[in-house]
Amino acid sequence: MPICQVCKKREATVFLTQIINGKKTDMYMCRQCAGEGYKIDLNTLISGLLGLSWGDEEIGTATQVACDRCGMTVEEFNRTGKMGCSHCYDVFREPMKVLLKRIQGNTRHQGKVPESYAAAHAAELEVEKLQRELRECIRVENYERAAEIRDRIRQLQSRRGGRQ
């Protein structure tokens, strides 16, 4: 195992590779030295690993957007990984969706649901799917199928107590 290149005393357990202006630098450090001098921003790390940047064509001119309450820019959010105020979530909604979709593959929760809520959640997702299908059937003027879907939606909603 190599020795820490910073303190030259302890065993190196952290391997850091930096690429700055196209120049690659490798460093071996012990846990203490790595913790003292090299704070790694998680947002920057993830963005770097996935090759993401706010300048991608999918995000468009997002770098020019700023929050009208606190002045936070997309560039600042990308650098810090934090929002400036609660209004930033509305201002940066679309850039965040693009980033989340690229990192996680989706912008909707797909994880586990509490068992007591599972049936209601499944019905809710089914209604949403049927509503999309209903809109498509109406768009293509398939009214027979649209009526079947409408009836199925009503049936599911009546089981849930009519909530929408």
Could you name the key traits of this structure?
mainly alpha, single chain, kinase activity, 9% strand, 2 strands, zinc ion binding, 164 residues, two-stranded antiparallel sheet
Structure description:
The protein is mainly alpha-helical and 164 residues long. It has three domains: 39 residues, no CATH class; 70 residues, no CATH class; 45 residues. The chain contains seven helices and two strands, in the order ββααααααα. Strands 1-2 form a two-stranded antiparallel ribbon. A hairpin with a 2-residue loop joins strand 1 and strand 2. Helix 6 packs antiparallel against helix 7. It is elongated. About 7% of the residues have low confidence.
Question: Can you lay out the helices and strands and say which pair or pack?
Answer:
Layout: E1 14-20, E2 23-29, H1 31-37, H2 42-50, H3 74-80, H4 88-91, H5 93-104, H6 115-139, H7 143-159
Query: H/E series, N to C?
Result: EEHHHHHHH
Number of distinct helices: 7
- Rounded mean pLDDT is 76
Across the major sheet, the strand order is 1-2
Q: What distance lies between the first and last C-alpha atoms, to the nearest angstrom?
A: 61 Å
Sheet bearing the most strands, described? 2 strands, antiparallel
Strand content: 5-15%
- Proportion of helical residues: 40-55%
Number of strands: 2
Oligomer: single chain
Shape: elongated
Radius of gyration: 25 Å
Number of domains: 3
GO molecular function, one term: kinase activity
Protein name: Protein arginine kinase activator
Keywords: Kinase, Transferase
Domain UVR: 124-159
